[in-house]
Amino acid sequence: MWRDWRLASAFAFGGLLWCVVIGLLLWFLPLGSSTSSSSTGQTVVGDGESFASLSAYGPLPLIIPAALCGMAAWSALRHHRVVLILATVLVGLFALLGGFSIGLAYVPAVLALIVACLATSASRSPEGEGNPH
């Protein structure tokens, strides 16, 4: 049986890259536009605020998934399947718990880590091995 750790590493690093790019975009770009009505009945449309100005925890909610994906990429390079699976589960939980705010942005990274975990599973055997015929 064999495991394709190069493929797992590539997908884990893809998840890490996704988390870093999404984190930077969320930090610096406005999250949407805001509207408010005044006492005169006029609607004022303003630019949305960035995550940096809205977050009570600072950059921590953006650092956590990137750090977990970094741990997954490191574990894929070092062939530590259990750590890779654990990091995948934790990033998945983060995306699930944050699903109504920033969590959805991390779903592609979770999918990449799931593929990385699947690439490390011992699923194939070389020709002739284990074949009773």
* Spatial separation of the terminal alpha carbons: 18 Å
Helical coverage, percent range: 55-70%
How would you characterize the largest beta sheet?
Answer: 2 strands, antiparallel
**Secondary-structure element order, N to C:** HEEHHHH
Q: What percent of residues are in strands? A: 5-15%
General form: elongated
Number of DSSP strand runs: 2
Mean pLDDT: 85
- Structural class by SSE content: mainly alpha
Q: Please list the strands of the largest sheet in the order they lie side by side.
A: 1-2
Low-confidence stretches: none
Number of folding domains? 1
Gyration radius, in Å: 21 Å
By DSSP (H or I, 4+ residues per run), the number of helices equals: 5
Spell out the key features of this protein.
133 residues; mainly alpha; two-stranded antiparallel ribbon; 5 helices; elongated
In words, what does this structure look like?
The two termini are 18 Å apart. Helix 1 (5-28) packs antiparallel against helix 3 and helix 4 (81-97) runs antiparallel to helix 5. The model has no long low-confidence stretch (mean pLDDT 85). The chain has helices spanning 5-28, 51-54, 60-77, 81-97, 107-119; strands at residues 33-37, 43-47. It has one domain. By secondary structure, it is mostly helical. It is elongated, with a radius of gyration of 21 Å. The chain has a two-stranded antiparallel sheet with strand order 1-2.
